[in-house]
Amino acid sequence: MTLALALAAPESEAANRRACQRTCKRFTRQCTAATSKPGRCERLLRRVDKCRQRFADVACGATTTTTATGSSTTTTTIAGAGAVVAVDEARAVTRTVPTWGGTLTATGADGTVYSLTIPSGALLDDTAINMTPIVSISGGDLPSATVFGVDLQPSGLRLYEFADLRITPPQLDPTANVAGFSYEGEGEDLHRYPAVVDGGRILLHVIHFSGAGANICVELCPPPIEQPPSPPITESQLEQIIAQLDPHDPFYAPRLSELLHGYYELFIKPDLARMQQDCDFATSRIPKALAWSRTNQILLAEDGFADENQTVGNALVGSVSNCWSEATAPCLDMTNAYQVQKLVQTARQAQLLGGDPEAFDMSKLRRCSGLWSGTITYEFKYDEDGDFPWGGAHETRRTRHREAQEWHIIPHVIAELPCEQCQSRIFEATWSGSESRDDHYVKDYGHCTDTSTVMGQVDSGDLPSAFAINVSRDQRLFTVNPTWSYQGDPPTGIVDGTYVSKRVDCQGYEEIGLPGLLHVVEDWTPWPFHGTNPGLPFERTDPTIPWTSEGQHVDRREETGIGGGLIVITTTWTWKLTIEPDAGQ
What we know:
Blueprint lengths: L11 H20 L6 H17 L7 E7 L3 E7 L5 E4 L5 E5 L4 E6 L5 E6 L8 E12 L8 E7 L4 E11 L8 E8 L3 E6 L2 E3 L2 E8 L2 E7 L17 H10 L7 H24 L3 H22 L5 H23 L8 H16 L19 E19 L2 E24 L6 E22 L4 E11 L3 E9 L5 E6 L11 E11 L5 E3 L3 E6 L14 E2 L9 E14 L5 E14 L6
Antiparallel strand pairs: 1-2, 3-7, 4-7, 5-6, 6-9, 7-8, 8-14, 9-13, 10-11, 10-14, 12-13, 15-16, 15-26, 16-17, 17-18, 17-19, 18-21, 19-20, 20-24, 21-22, 21-23, 25-26
Helix pairs in contact: 1-2, 4-5, 4-6, 5-6, 6-7
């Protein structure tokens, strides 16, 4: 059985060691065959060398043997810690299992028949399942070399109900002693797993992938070499503890009940409240908490766990309800593929967990209408030109200072704003800012010149932003305003850079000045359509077709510069905003 709540995070060093072990396995599997790819193997070999330098006990020597059993099977053994799983790829089976369940059957080279039955309600979506017979496992703590098992893909898949894995060897004594096993990924975390002999078959209940199977022992299967540590314990360690319990022992049920109750108090119960308030957190916890509940139901017929299972069930439905509310808080945009897919999956998850279908009916959600999209740009220009005598010299001045901002409004509503009898929403957006300096000043003394220059440019690229767009009650005006830090909206965009100043004097001496600051802040203050002019005309006459507001506002003023030169300051706003037809039109 599996209790899928791995709460004990591995130490960084241990994680690095396991990564090295996986690299060793990949190198040996992929680079000992005649068809290996040189480029890939060279890269893997470099990683292997680094691992050898870092961890003296991680060796990557390998031996390869081939068995001729009607299919080509390569068995790889890697020295050092960790297990190596060799599989018979030629005998793999793949099938897309629908949500109402199905069965995969594969036959090993020795005639062993493997059957995986996935019940209705175990899968969130139609899923392609691959099952490959295992030939051998080396390097792990298994009691014998007689291995019967399968590698199940996709790795990491968690089921909402237990699947039954039945293993039927050509010959199996009904009184045989077996030791089940399970592993993650490519053989990581190999550990004992509950398995029983059911007539002439070995039976395992599986609720997570990657690998599962059993050893057949000549005598009583010995216990694992290393006993699981004290709490906190991982899911795999708890599975191993359960696997060591003897179902025929008169104290089996009380001991198992004690383990499961303790695990609930330590690792399930503390998460339930947060799961119902944080969808991201709940996403990783729901299958694991569900697995705990399914385990006590199938092993102990829920005896003594009715209250805890009710609490867990309510919390799971509450978690999914919260995810549904978060996804539909603004409105349902049927053009937003990500939102629609997420809601379909959430509704399916609610169905599997026993939620009320009426509460997860997409047809009853308020549809988004009046979705806005478009672009708004702002450009500031400061131009100075001068040509005049100055202190015994003739000076020429040219100043070019540019600053630009651009907003892209995305037709994705992220919040509704309170507005009686009017439409006011916050839309997702992006902002980019840039600034440049290109200045050139020359003093001509007749026999020599003194030149100064300023050069620099900075560009932010796209940064997250958000825009509030409001249509007035009388449908005559609409306003646009960026929002910053409103209920989690992105902060104000900022971009910083530097410019370089240089001077060459009459003697030809070159001097580099200290870097200057280029600084652009997302700023809406210059927008001309607020205050006494509080909006743009909303002239849509037909709500069944898209309508676009497009225009430009230019402000230009002139000033007198140094020596009578001309300074021209220009600000230009350009916009093109489109509102889509109302929902249902």
